[in-house]
Amino acid sequence: MIRVTVWNEFKHEQTHEQVRNVYPDGIHRVIADGLIEQEPAFAVRTATLPEPEHGLTEDVLNETDVLIWWGHMAHDDVNDDIVNRVHERVLNGMGLIVLHSGHYSKIFKKLMGTGCGLKWREAHEKERIWTVDPSHPIAQGVPEYFELKPEEMYGEHFDIPAPDELIFVSWFEGGEVFRSGCTFRRGQGKIFYFRPGHETYPTYYHPIIRRVIANGVKWAAPSGAGVPFRGNHQPLEPIG
Amino acid sequence: MIRVTVWNEFKHEQTHEQVRNVYPDGIHRVIADGLIEQEPAFAVRTATLPEPEHGLTEDVLNETDVLIWWGHMAHDDVNDDIVNRVHERVLNGMGLIVLHSGHYSKIFKKLMGTGCGLKWREAHEKERIWTVDPSHPIAQGVPEYFELKPEEMYGEHFDIPAPDELIFVSWFEGGEVFRSGCTFRRGQGKIFYFRPGHETYPTYYHPIIRRVIANGVKWAAPSGAGVPFRGNHQPLEPIG
Amino acid sequence: MIRVTVWNEFKHEQTHEQVRNVYPDGIHRVIADGLIEQEPAFAVRTATLPEPEHGLTEDVLNETDVLIWWGHMAHDDVNDDIVNRVHERVLNGMGLIVLHSGHYSKIFKKLMGTGCGLKWREAHEKERIWTVDPSHPIAQGVPEYFELKPEEMYGEHFDIPAPDELIFVSWFEGGEVFRSGCTFRRGQGKIFYFRPGHETYPTYYHPIIRRVIANGVKWAAPSGAGVPFRGNHQPLEPIG
Amino acid sequence: MIRVTVWNEFKHEQTHEQVRNVYPDGIHRVIADGLIEQEPAFAVRTATLPEPEHGLTEDVLNETDVLIWWGHMAHDDVNDDIVNRVHERVLNGMGLIVLHSGHYSKIFKKLMGTGCGLKWREAHEKERIWTVDPSHPIAQGVPEYFELKPEEMYGEHFDIPAPDELIFVSWFEGGEVFRSGCTFRRGQGKIFYFRPGHETYPTYYHPIIRRVIANGVKWAAPSGAGVPFRGNHQPLEPIG
């Protein structure tokens, strides 16, 4: 059983009626529903910025196999201690799925080491997402391409390290491309960045989007060695 | 249920008493036993060079999710048509695990596009295998390092494309290193090369070796999209 | 001084008036002119399919640092011995730049190990090429994006191994994306695949296209170690 | 002309006689001498921790194409503002070469996003460095392998992201292996980590070590596009 925590800053839903209309109980609730719909065996909980410790206590993180992150307007309000705690957990094996505007979150920038900037435009345009690594488990059950209309545009250059694996590339009506599905490994943790999900659109109700996120959870769940690999330390004696 | 076919050229066992002593029913039999021991749910069969079509008929390959390949002295005796058939199956999604001296097999060279040469020495020396990608599913349950003594030495430069993922690196008593656990994706197929397994040593009885190969099977089993991605063909009309 | 050989099958120019109008002396001639324009110090020669040994004799290849390949309708007419000779030279350090429809050439497929298929459409549409790896030497002097209109469309899934480096991604008016600038290392040789260049369009007169190909030549020129690394062989004695 | 700044914390040389005996004017001075010996056209300067702003003022960094970093016992004494300034410069295209114990520097950890831990042992043992990517420009003129005796041991698991390119792998007498030559791209900057160089050994006088560092400088020098790629900003209007 994979234990998932869906984190959302949960601000747009309070302040923008347009967002509340699409996600009345919050984006996190719809993402969580999608996971349960796709994989009933997942144990899913949610956490949000306004909760104590942003809902990401030591206990919660210790019981989380994969953390999903949605943030946008309140990146700066996330406490650095919590960011460091999440960072440490990822290096020790917790999976992390960063969605959409989470590209600019503290935790993603800290794990990438780069600026993580990109281009964007809100013009209600069509996005066509192409699968470029069809053998990847995250692409399981995903067609050659699928469309979202409308979505926000994100364009290159996306200032990330070269991803370990590039799974999806987006085409936008207005003339841009974007590396929309990227994996990274950091420490013992696996990270999946997935682009779609502007807060004013019903993207997280889309069955293929739900499929991709559920696939991402299964891929990112810890599968590594049982022994600790971390730290700077003196080793065994030389071989005799 | 994952369907595995273990292929062995099955020649050393006929002609070298030393090999027959270690693998009386053939290397393939011991590899197959190890898979069943590790994962009773695997459906495992074997195939060998002397069989008609080397045991790799269209039917067998169509019912194979992952093919394991052990060959050494008879690479040239493998029929090119069978090599092409296996190649085609890999590009269409069948997993392939190439063991030890299989680095010089026709199928591995055809998939890599390089010479696949390396250094070697039979000196009954110690091999220490280090895990350098502890988060990889193939490293699941594998310690930081483990030892084989004796083993044949394989040394760099190993003339392969840069692997998509480097999981294990070997240290040899005599002074060499080797990229011993490497993954590659070709078409919709996943390939895992794993170094150990000289025919005169009981390597395939070793529990960690068995664990790694079983992990490799699970990793390499097809997980891709359900739609065909192959071929050179015209697409849909332009978007209206 | 880098020695470049530009190879062209040189067939369309003989048989299609439309192509002859754009490239009256052959595509190879215009590519060669572009190289000299960009880098007067390059030593550039050409070779074509109808010449003896397709112009790729042992002597010519031994004096070639980087080979540029354009082929389309006559891939099957290239002699396998010449393909093997070029392959061997690449593994020994010669650079190779494969242009446009060369994706389906024998030499590219042999080096990649995959089917190398893709989607295509001739609809006189606009191509916008985005730079996704701005720090790469092949992107030197190349803007964030540039446009070709018209060009032929090439679309994903492009059946290649994951490139070592992804430098350019194309956007097409009709709704597709394509990994248009990819590098691969094989043996001691460097390979650059660059998408644009349909035979009926004046693509190889375009200053940025010329810049990219010249950058590619500089990147692909041999720079490796002076000692031989090839072959399967017994090594030194163990360390005393 | 490539402008290089060699940075050294310059502490061991003040406090440890053994280090002062090997590097009487500081490690930075010997690294700088090696660069000038190998490439007289380099413009080389040095900077050290005790200088104002650690010698890394805005002016110095703006006039630096490649920064070389050696630090060990005083990582924590490096001011965070200077670390951020160097980070920003790397993302904007300055090359960075991190040597030996610099793996634990603030700047390297910030760029990697991981813990950067490793194993180590001071046992005066032999290190044998193998070239695993002979076609890489950093391996130019470097033999198949070369030896340092004695050196400090560094062992896996080295907690870094999978390097973009793996060029050298070390073998140690006591039984460990290490990914000793690794490249990374971050933003528009190129980073090369190179393992050897314990302060009590004359490693930076070794001609092959000097060759590798000089090659690294040439490789890491900015070569990207002339236009700015950074930041999070809105793009052009959609294509008409």
Commentary on this structure:
The structure is a homotetramer of 240-residue chains. With 240 residues, the first copy, chain A, is of the alpha/beta class. Helices cover 25% and strands 29% of the residues of chain A. Chain A has a nine-stranded mixed sheet with strand order 2-1-3-4-9-8-7-5-6. In chain A, helix 5 (80-91) packs across helix 6. At the A-D interface, helix 6, strand 5 and strand 8 of A face helix 6, strand 5 and strand 8 of D.
Characteristic terms for this protein:
7 helices, ThuA domain-containing protein (chains A, B, C, D), about 25% helix, homotetramer, 9 strands, about 240 residues, Class_I_gatase-like (chains A, B, C, D), nine-stranded mixed beta sheet, Rossmann fold, alpha/beta, ThuA-like (chains A, B, C, D), Trehalose_catabolism_ThuA_prok (chains A, B, C, D)
How is this fold's topology laid out?
The structure is a homotetramer of 240-residue chains.
Chain A: E1 3-8, H1 12-15, H2 17-22, H3 27-38, E2 43-48, H4 58-62, E3 66-70, H5 80-91, E4 95-99, H6 106-112, E5 119-131, E6 145-155, E7 165-172, E8 177-186, E9 189-194, H7 207-220
Parallel strand pairs in A: 1-2, 1-3, 3-4, 4-9
Antiparallel strand pairs in A: 5-6, 5-7, 7-8, 8-9
Order of helices and strands of chain A: EHHHEHEHEHEEEEEH
Q: Report the uncertain regions of chain A.
A: none
Radius of gyration of chain A: 18 Å
What is the CATH level 1 assignment of the domain at 3-113 and 180-220 in chain A?
A: Alpha Beta
How many H/I helical runs of chain A? 7
Overall pLDDT of chain A: 94
> Regarding quaternary structure, how should these chains be classified?
homotetramer
Give the strand order, joined by hyphens, for the main sheet of chain A: 2-1-3-4-9-8-7-5-6
Pfam families (chains A, B, C, D): ThuA
Protein name (chains A, B, C, D): ThuA domain-containing protein
Organism (chains A, B, C, D): Cohnella yongneupensis
